[in-house]
Amino acid sequence: MRGTNNLKQNKMKIITKKIGDLIEAEYNPRQLTKEQFQQITDSIKRFGIVDPIIVNKNKERKNIIVGGHQRVKVAGSLGFKEIPCVEVDLTPDKERELNVRLNKNTGEWDWDELANHFDVSELIDWGFDDKDLSFFDLDGMTDDSHKKLEDSFIIPPFSIFDSKQGYWQNRKKWWNNLIGDKGESREDKLSNLNNMSAMYRPEMATVSILDPVIAEIANKWFGLESCNTFDCFAGDSVFGYVSDYLGNKFTGIELRQEQTDLNNKRLKGTESKYICDDGQNVLKHIKANTQDLLFSCPPYFDLEVYSTLENDASNQKEYKDFIKILDKAFSDSLKCLKNNRFAFIVVGDIRNENGVYYNFPSDIKNIFIKNGILLYNEIILADPLGTAPARARKYMGNRKVVKVHQNILVFYKGDTKEIKNIYPKLDLIIDESQDV
Questions:
Q1: pTM attached to this predicted model
Q2: Which of 7, 338, 382, 385 is 20 to 30 A away from residue 224, measured at CA?
């Protein structure tokens, strides 16, 4: 009687490969505890490698490890130069599926990697159940929400924002083309290029421009639909443009008339506006308890000198006078903010003439905290490297590391228990027409 089993048989041929030629899968979501790692080590010491490593031979994914990452690590730590392998020819999607299926019953999951690289619908198809996926909060999920984190939230909502990633750069390019702000009114204003933060466009070496993706995240994550947003240190037109484009009414206070006129020109025909005045006078233009989101990227002391005006925060001779201006402006701005609303502040520390940091982010925290505002999220904004590699060699003569990040401080005014009641569940399906 002929067999009726139609299951595909994979003829395994064990070959030997150099450990140095094998490549760890960038998405591999498995991690071992110290005890599990030691168990594998003890087993290999006693019996050798008895379970071959599964490696992809597909031309697009050649030598990518599909199964056996931990055995490869242990073998390498024990001095093995070669390891037995079985090759499979898999497309990238099939490779990812086999990786998860092989790893499902061993080790511990790296939930960040699993959530960021795999769709929930895929994991369900591959044998995960509700208990396995409790980490994902499946309540209310729909087929449309089975996406990577950056597809649902613009970027992954982790405490490090990596602006070097492709999803970030694509959004930034789209916004920059739409806005067209090239910092015309502030050319050659940066007073200390060595301290220049890379949150600004690297192609604008002599002027700072807010990254529009930051503005988009602030509006969509911490604002409300058709809400009132404002900034007491408005600067360029980026945040106002993005906020208005997303359906919010923005009010910005900007000290320089030239910049105010340019910003209003970009917002012509909208309800949003920039007002030329000192940010310390915010209560003269915005009523108390009327605003839904405070956004600001205040001056970084004398890093960029905007004008010769005496009341310009960036033009102060002493750091303490600079902080005094910010204290007044932010304290009054918080009176304009409604209860149970967020404030989103972008800051970066700066060095004094002796190369020592002022501790600027902590001073900003203290201003908000003394006003009874809660520090809710603290985020690191990892910037593109730009000229950092070239500067690093020079700076290390003084043992000074090159700063390639900034701080994003998210504060909350009110009762954090009310956030779920006031702010709807986020499901930011990105408009495909906005793809670059």
A1: 0.64
A2: 382
